[in-house]
Amino acid sequence: MRIYLTGATGFIGSALVAELIGAGHQVIGLTRSDAGAKALLDAGAEVHRGTLEDPASVRSGAEDADAVIHAAFDHDFSRFVENCEKDKRVIAALGAALAGSSRPLLITSGTGMGSGEHGELAREDVLNTGHPNPRIASEIAGNALLDAGINVSVVRLPQVHNPYKQGLISPLVEIARAKGVSAYVGEGRNRWPAGHLSDVARLYRLAVEKGERGARYHAVGEEGVSSREIAEALGRGLKLPTVSIHPDEAAAHFGWMGMFVGLDMPASSAKTQASLGWRPSGPSLIDDLNEERYV
Fold it and tell me: N or C: which end of the chain has fewer CB within 10 A?
């Protein structure tokens, strides 16, 4: 297939370009920069210029594609709500480009959107439209396209990792360096799901190849890794003490990360594995942290 990929030069997108091309697909990658264009060409992909701030420029790349994967997101969390609304507009624009066809659009969300009660495993068959996380805007936008007859499906991401980057854990490294301690909240029993980068890239490929309208997939290799385990691994790598922070002090200690660090967000990928025959096999999150490449 000829697949248009947003976020093609990012952490996940770069791995996905290689995964798609390795499986025999043609890739058209979205980029805003000359450096990004060079990286895409070097990887064997075509280049489409555009920015998330200009949905029309993103939409035009989808016009002659057989399928679209939307993996781009603005990760400036100081403007998180605004960026989630921006993502909603981009998804709507991409859907408009595919109107009247059965061409698949695979969008990206977070596993938290499948959460039920606090501490329950998030599941693929759950969509909590009242979720307080502003990222729910992406799935609401996807649902609107489904109602309009567009072939939309969703990949929900956990903490995606390799030895060099680990999703929201990477900012914790900088916070620990600045504060001189590696911290967790309370007893540190709250859990975050995780998925290795190679497994996540393979899941995107399998999902877009299947093109199942309305499907939701969880890119989860580990259902939940405790925040204390994560903090202890960072403490070892950074040679810093590991400490507990009272929940009331989380915002002051962690800054914008304070909204996330105490959340218990385990997630299942059982339905995803059964549907796609996907079997995560990459290293665990703690194994990657123990390599200390981030240091």
Answer: C
Work out the number of other CB atoms within 10 angstroms of the CB of residue 220: 29
Sign of the torsion formed by the C-alpha atoms of 211, 88, 274 and 128: negative
Q: What is the pLDDT of residue 254?
A: 96
Strands 46-49 and 152-157, sheet pairing: unpaired
Cα–Cα distance between 45 and 3 in angstroms, integer? Answer: 10
In this structure, are residues 222 and 195 in contact, taking their beta carbons and an 8 Å threshold? yes
Q: Which residues pair with 160 in a beta bridge?
A: 195
Cα–Cα distances in angstroms (integers) from residue 57 to residues 27, 46, 51, 106, 168, in the given order: 17, 16, 7, 18, 29
**Amino acid 120: pLDDT:** 82
**Full DSSP string of 221-281:** SEEEEEHHHHHHHHHHHHT--EEEE-GGGHHHHHGGGGGTTT----B--HHHHHHH-----
> What are the 10-residue block averages of pLDDT along the chain, 295 residues in total?
98 98 98 97 98 97 96 90 96 97 97 80 90 91 97 98 95 96 97 98 98 97 98 97 97 92 94 98 97 88
